[in-house]
Amino acid sequence: MESTAENITYSKESIEELKQDILKKYPTKVARKRAKQIIINKIDEGDAVPEIGANTRTVPGILTQRGCTYAGCKGVILGPTRDLVNIVHGPIGCSFYAWLTRRNQTRPVDDNDENFMTYCFSTDMQDSDIVFGGEGKLRQAVQEAYDLFHPKAISIFATCPVGLIGDDIHQVAREMKEKLGINVFAFSCEGYKGVSQSAGHHIANNGIFKHVVGEDDTVKEGEYKINLLGEYNIGGDGFEIDRILEECGIQVVSTFSGNSTYGQFANCHTADLNTVMCHRSINYVAEMMETKFGIPWIKINFIGAKSTAKSLRKIADYFGEQKLKDRVEEVIAREMPEVEKVMMDVRSRCEGKTAMMFVGGSRAHHYQELFNEMGMKTLSAGYEFAHRDDYEGRKVLPTIKIDADSRNIEELEVEQDPARYKPRKTDEQMKALADQGYTFKDYKGMMPEMEANSLVIDDISHYETERLIEFYEPDIVCAGIKEKFVVQKSGVPMKQLHSYDSGGPYAGFRGAVNFYKEIDRMVNSKVKTYLKAPWQKNPELSGHYVWE
Amino acid sequence: MLLRHTPKEIKERSALVINPAKTCQPVGAMYAALGIHACMPHSHGSQGCCSYHRSALTRHYKEPAMATTSSFTEGSSVFGGQANLIQAIDNIFTIYEPDIIAVHTTCLSETIGDDITQIGRKAKDDGKVPEGKYVIHCNTPSYVGSHVTGFANMCKGMVDYFSEKTGEKKNVFNIIPGFVEPSDMEEIKRLVSAMGIEFIMFPDTSGVLNGPLTGHFSMYPEGGVTIEQLKATGDSTGTLALGDTASSLAAKTLDTKFKVPCEILDLPIGLSATDAFIDTLRKVAGVPVPDSITYERGQMVDLISDMHQYFYGKKVALFGDPDQLVSLTRFLLDLDMKPVHIVTGTPGKKFEKTIQDLTADLPYTVNVKESGDMFLLHQWIKNEPVDLLIGNTYGKYIARDEDIPFLRHGFPILDRVGHSYFPTVGYKGGIRLLEKILDLLLDRIDRDAKEESFELVL
Ligand code: SF4
Ligand code: SF4
Prior knowledge:
The complex is a heterodimer. By secondary structure, chain A is α/β, with parallel strands linked by helices. Among the domains of chain A are: 5-64 and 446-529, Nitrogenase molybdenum iron protein domain (Rossmann fold, 3-Layer(aba) Sandwich), CATH 3.40.50; 69-194, Rossmann fold, CATH 3.40.50.1980. Helix content of chain A is 44%, strand content 12%. In chain A, the strands form three sheets. In chain A, strands 1-12-11-10-13-14 form a six-stranded mixed β-sheet, sandwiched between helices. Chain A has a four-stranded parallel β-sheet with strand order 3-2-4-5, sandwiched between helices. Chain A has a four-stranded parallel β-sheet with strand order 7-6-8-9, sandwiched between helices. In chain A, helix 6 (135-149) runs parallel beside helix 8 and helix 10 runs antiparallel to helix 21 (508-523). Chain A is globular. Chain B is of the alpha/beta class. A five-stranded parallel β-sheet of chain B has the order 12-11-10-13-14, sandwiched between helices. In chain B, strands 3-2-4-5 form a four-stranded parallel β-sheet, sandwiched between helices. Chain B has a four-stranded parallel β-sheet with strand order 7-6-8-9. In chain B, strand 10 (315-320), helix 13 and strand 11 (338-344) form a beta-alpha-beta unit. Chain B starts with 16 loop residues before the first strand and ends in a 10-residue tail after the last helix. The relative contact order of chain B is 0.12. The chains are: A alpha/beta, B alpha/beta. At the A-B interface, helix 3, helix 4, strand 3, helix 5 and helix 6 of A face strand 1, helix 1, helix 2, strand 3 and helix 3 of B. Strand 3 of chain A pairs antiparallel with strand 1 (17-18) of chain B, so a sheet runs across the interface. The structure holds iron/sulfur cluster (2 copies). One iron/sulfur cluster sits between chains A (68, 70-71, 94, 159-160, 190-191) and B (46, 48-49, 52, 106-108). One iron/sulfur cluster sits between chains A (90-94, 159-160) and B (24, 26, 49, 52, 106-107, 142).
């Protein structure tokens, strides 16, 4: 291993040795499975990268980062919609833990605007509900919620025991919708339904697509109307993105689902472009909206100042008007000096430092941009619940095998909406864009953008994290709350990239500045020097202390 | 307003819980299991529960909270979780090398009806449990009780699996500390040691969930009750169970199985409950109370006397776990404060009865509810405002909307530190509570004072 601060490289052999050494600890079957999920990166022609095992079951007994389908459905996707009453049907815990713990901010327009995000609703199933069924209680709970709040819509979420005891939550939803005259819809998102949160994202998005999208045809004012898909407004990221887009004169019809409302979902089919931020959690919605309504989609990324500029330009190019392009350039020109000033400043302290990132389904990729901008290098990365296309790029989609677990998740059959389908661009216009090298519905994935011989690990386990820290001695690790203090106990600063540790926003231009400063604070922290007490550094007493 | 939809008018609800004042059993079981030395708590169910419980504990303690899961999928939920659990046991002993795996169930495995005793036996027969290592368990269906029940069940699991009687009575006392902070457990140990009493405390999370930063992560920190200690609990002279809801189950099991008699006491929070604790220790062990403890008590009484004018007559709303609430209510009454609204989410009629007995002679009504929620508490507060709110972090939303001074106490505290290091049990802990309450009340006086009555000396 030759390693210098400026130019850190690891030989393929040393990485292979590390991998084999890690696998040695596991029982044979586990080792065989993990071997497919621990990949030494290699980029061949056409951005071809080695196949990685992803979106497969976690081995029982392994300390995993992953959560459940319910967490993905209720916690991630529907949690940030403020005017929905989200009733969790199940015992109390599931609802309790998903109560305000994700930091997705919301901003009601005024004091009378509905906001139920600070509330936690549960049917709190008891023994007798498990034995005799909980449908009655659920029906009553929906009624009580309605009587108290008169919300626009009520959604119902199933937790693990619900499916097993055979409660038909969809029937209850239909009945109550009929009775109350508001939209009531349910999600069969029992925790065991998939191998990770990812299944829950899919169930949630399918539900929204089926029950809400297309309900409101009002065409709002605005010249350049887009949807922002897969942005959850953690720490105010969405606010910063909204600010920038607004300055450019671009209207966001709907965000899925940071700072969102029911009405935005109902109306989102009136936008003219779908921009996809987190590919993992939502690419299928973009696909369905294209088929049904004729809205094209592009992958964008507002994490990192350069990617933000690039994404803005890409949106402007889509609409094609010079006026918009000029305005975008103006905004970029206005924002960049401050970004660059801070960037240069932190570079003087952070250049050459190293990071590892194991998180989520897109951030382990997106945040490499920010580290690059600071002159830092990502040595190893991986996702918690992503699929192969998020690692290897959408080109591998046709080769992904559908296993029993993925078959569990409904694939909606979508057709052109007879009334609402409207191609946003003519075939010629689309072709003209393509000829200029413009790419629609494309995501290259994380691996082609990482260096050869970097280690890519899917659904990393605690043991692997510990070994990697030993081997790489990174300056910072990014993951989630469960890993936070494990990593920090070993003296390495750890940045949470789900919740941002109460920080943020990190998206857009101002977000980039926040992130540079935060990482600078962390990797240059003095804490490392406090770990040993003076008497531990010099345990030998050289003689008796002599009082003068 | 953050809780803008909460109306003042109270309507009866029979099905919908809003803003719960409890969570589910497994998190309590996981916490208790972390109080055994070299133990890996294991959640038998889908991985979501385990992830949530670990996250909750991590956020509360700002420490690693290690626990594994059976990672159920659709298949296991149909065919049962035996294969998952046996594979998990094998993996855990191979990779993470604990001495004990403490399994708790979840809603899912309970609904399926997995028999953990039988699966544990099979794992052993299959050779998946190395020599000298243990798999223990307790059942924690979340559709019964609350997180406190889960804690109680895991304490019982420790007795069920480990306690033995050799026939030789020892002059040692078992102490079950209840669902309290590591710092509280440490303080209880200090007090019992100061009385010269030999004891075994289980569980004991001090030294596990409040450890130092050394630059080295250790999966199994120094702290925790050991297997030898747990085994020996059957030979002890008696058991002191602190907190009826959390601790009496294990204490009674020791009594029934091994004839180890028990006393069930309130958590030693506040003056009278700490008095009862120390006095009981004195009597059961037949030892004098050392002057140092009497001295600490005197300091606490001194503080109460000095600052009585600020406590007197102040109305308080509190929510949380039954054992904490009973002792806090007694403490507030000791101070001549007025606990007017008291809510726990944990079910159990006994709680309401205890509070009613404590407050029977007061010239004002006290609202009390078991299986209640914070939505109801908030409505009560809207109908009769209070001067102080006590409860876990979720109380901050009510406190902000209603502009009430807010004391964080209980589980979980997600937005402040201190609870890991500074106890609220014992006289020292009581002094800390007094200080915290006073800070809140006096800051409020300062904040609201007119310029002419803004005082230097309070
Ligand atoms: S399923 Fe049960 S055990 Fe799991 S989090 Fe929900 S209530 Fe708790
Ligand atoms: S019970 Fe099921 S739905 Fe609830 S947290 Fe656990 S795994 Fe998720």
